[in-house]
């Protein structure tokens, strides 16, 4: 279609116009056969798969002596929506210097190596946040494992986004027909409006501009909010 338009004569005849209309109708038909426009922006959920693998790799970077079989098994489970509850059970923890807690650290947040997780109750979905330069990559996971939403955000927005995303996790777990990146975008946009009806999201909205910051004498949160099997693995590591 573009080629035809680029080679149009200076003056169009009735036959030229009819030919263009016919070709436009054919192009419209072909595009409809290719599926929704979003499929061409994210073919085969490529963005979601890439984000899922990055989350697995980020977790494995905090472990030593991880076998190739374990790494491939976890990546295969992530790509096929399998549970990742044993992500912290492989290898041994990598000793790292204790980082300063980020602005969003507070109730419900737990840190393991360089990954922060937010899960208010064991039955909720959970958010995994990893620093990427000046921003944080945020992944929302359902309690069973599949990735529900993901994107990046400034540190001061993480607390509000995490609470809003977890509040919406049950609905997205039941209906996963939308794109993970678009769920995140819709949630971020909703936080900027006052017509949001969810009490948890309204509470998150007020925290966007006033994130929880621990005082200099308050240690980082230690109460675990990871899925049960991950916490069990960490407890085993402490006993060893």
Structure description:
A hairpin with a 2-residue loop joins strand 3 and strand 4 (115-118). The chain is elongated. A five-stranded antiparallel sheet has the order 3-4-5-6-7, with helices on both faces. A two-stranded antiparallel sheet has the order 1-2. It is an alpha+beta fold. The longest helix is centred in the N-terminal third of the chain and has 20 residues, at 14-33. It contains nine helices and seven strands. Residues 203-225 and 236-240 have low confidence and may be disordered.
Q: Helical percent range?
A: 40-55%
Low-confidence stretches: 203-225, 236-240
Main beta sheet, described?
A: 5 strands, antiparallel
Q: Name the strands of the widest sheet in spatial order.
A: 3-4-5-6-7
What's the short version?
The protein has helices spanning 2-6, 14-33, 37-41, 46-61, 68-79, 155-174, 180-190, 199-208, 228-239, and strands spanning 63-64, 92-93, 109-112, 115-118, 126-132, 135-141, 147-154. The chain has 240 residues and is of the alpha+beta class.
Write the layout of secondary structure elements.
Layout: H1 2-6, H2 14-33, H3 37-41, H4 46-61, E1 63-64, H5 68-79, E2 92-93, E3 109-112, E4 115-118, E5 126-132, E6 135-141, E7 147-154, H6 155-174, H7 180-190, H8 199-208, H9 228-239
Antiparallel strand pairs: 1-2, 3-4, 4-5, 5-6, 6-7
Helix pairs in contact: 4-5, 6-8
Notable traits:
46% helix, 7 strands, five-stranded antiparallel beta sheet, 9 helices, alpha+beta, disordered C terminus, two-stranded antiparallel sheet, 240 residues
